[in-house]
Amino acid sequence: MEGNGEEGSSFQRREEVEIAIVGGGMGGLALALALQERGITAHLFEKRGITHAHLFEKHHDLLSDTATAIGIGANGMKALDGIRSGLSKVMEDAGTYVSCRKLTLVNKKGEVQYREQTFEQGEYVSIGFKQAQLVLASYINKDLIHCSHRLVRFESSEAGVDAYFEVTDEDTSSLEYVKVVHTKLLVGADGIWSVVRRMIVGDSPRYLHYVDWNAYVPNPGGKLFGGHGEHEIVLLFDEDGDTRSWLVDAGKGFSLWILRKLDLSGDLAKTLKRSKGGLGIPGSKVEHYSNLMDWMDGMILKRQSRQLMKLIFLSGQLWIVCQ
Ligand SMILES: Cc1cc2nc3c(=O)[nH]c(=O)nc-3n(C[C@H](O)[C@H](O)[C@H](O)COP(=O)(O)OP(=O)(O)OC[C@H]3O[C@@H](n4cnc5c(N)ncnc54)[C@H](O)[C@@H]3O)c2cc1C
Predict the structure, then answer these.
(1) Pairwise CA distance, residues 299 & 291, whole Å
(2) Of all protein residues, whose CA lies closest to atom 48 belonging to ligand 1?
């Protein structure tokens, strides 16, 4: 990155790069790595304050923990190897391969159907979200990753694009200065609330009206709770797919449990508003959950000889009690 020093006020600095990618999520990291592998230098700007040291040496938990794992299917595996030869195997080693996906479907009459899909090793990987990001980031030249850079706006002209970043102190998150990055190409990989997209397209994200509960927990050897075997994903769907549950071997002794509920009326989502990403208004989900509990219990007990876990409401909070 060519720095021209400070310009205008001491609060503003200018720099110049060939390609600027905004956002260090899976998309931004994958693109930065793919370009690097092809000898094209692209700088990546991430608003969160993750230093390279954090990424690769210690404090891995400082990476924003999404409390989830992701599944990478056959197309994703091919794409990874297209980015860098052998990358899909590295992902598999950092997570786990999936050998079987078991689906239990209950129709309106309560009849249960089972389906199983098997996979060859190398076809399907399950991996913690954070681990997948770390794998991608580990190959990217550390001088190309700029953390604590939040894009606020950009201006484009014949000469290229001027992207305005607020640069914050990593420890205190206080604003230090504004950096204007001049670039030939600005790529928006800044997620669902993308500033780049908002400025170009102007639309808002579309809400699919699903509410998810996720629990990504250490479960070595399945000792904490059963429900899925090694290298397995177990799915429970009602006929319309309005209520779904996943139990996933996420690799490295972790399991992921997801419960997803269609919420067209928005009643359930309303209870979450006070605490974004948390458990929401205390006690408010008891009613919603008690129905789901029956549904889950019914399916799990039919599907398996032992009970997976109990959901208990205590003092307005939801507790998951596992065997
Ligand atoms: C619970 C859950 C489970 C999922 N499971 C799967 C799955 O199994 N398989 C699958 O393929 N997909 C799955 N997905 C979807 C997948 O996670 C997303 O599609 C993917 O992460 C999107 O990547 P992204 O890089 O576009 O955006 P993000 O991962 O959102 O990354 C955007 C990045 O940009 C940064 N940023 C935002 N604004 C700015 C700004 N102004 N300036 C600088 N940086 C900024 C953010 O901090 C973030 O790091 C799942 C998603 C969720 C929520």
Answers:
(1) 13
(2) 25
| Ligand 1, atom 51, residue with closest C-alpha | 70
Cβ of 251 closer than 6 Å to ligand 1, yes or no, is no
pLDDT at residue 279 in the model:
53
- Decide: 212 in ligand 1 pocket, CB within 6 A: yes
Q: In the chain, which stretches have pLDDT less than 70?
A: 1-10, 50-66, 224-226, 272-323
- Measured in Å, residue 25 CA sits from the centre of ligand 1 at 5
Tell me the longest C-alpha to C-alpha distance in the chain.
71
Residue with tokens 């990874």: 80
226 CB near ligand 1 (under 6 Å) = no
Residue showing tokens 């204007």: 180
The CA angle 280-212-71, to the nearest 5 degrees, is: 145
| DSSP code for 275 | S
CA 190 vs CA 15, 127, 276, 311: distances in Å: 20, 22, 19, 36
pTM for this model (two decimals) = 0.86
Would you tell me how many other CB atoms lie within 10 Å of the CB of residue 94? Answer: 17
Rounded to the nearest whole angstrom, what is the distance from the C-alpha of residue 26 to the centroid of ligand 1? 6
What is the predicted pLDDT for the residue at 220?
A: 83
pLDDT at 305: 34
Q: Which CATH architecture has domain 87-130+207-322?
A: 2-Layer Sandwich (3.30)
Report the CATH fold assignment for 2-49+147-200: FAD/NAD(P)-binding domain (3.50.50)
Ligand 1 neighbour 29 (Cβ under 6 A): no
Residue intervals of the chain classified under CATH 3.30.9 are 87-130+207-322
Say how many CA atoms lie within 13 Å of 93 toward its Cβ: 7
List the structure tokens of 1: 């990155």
What are the two backbone dihedrals, phi and then psi, of residue 150, each rounded to the nearest 5 degrees? -105, 120
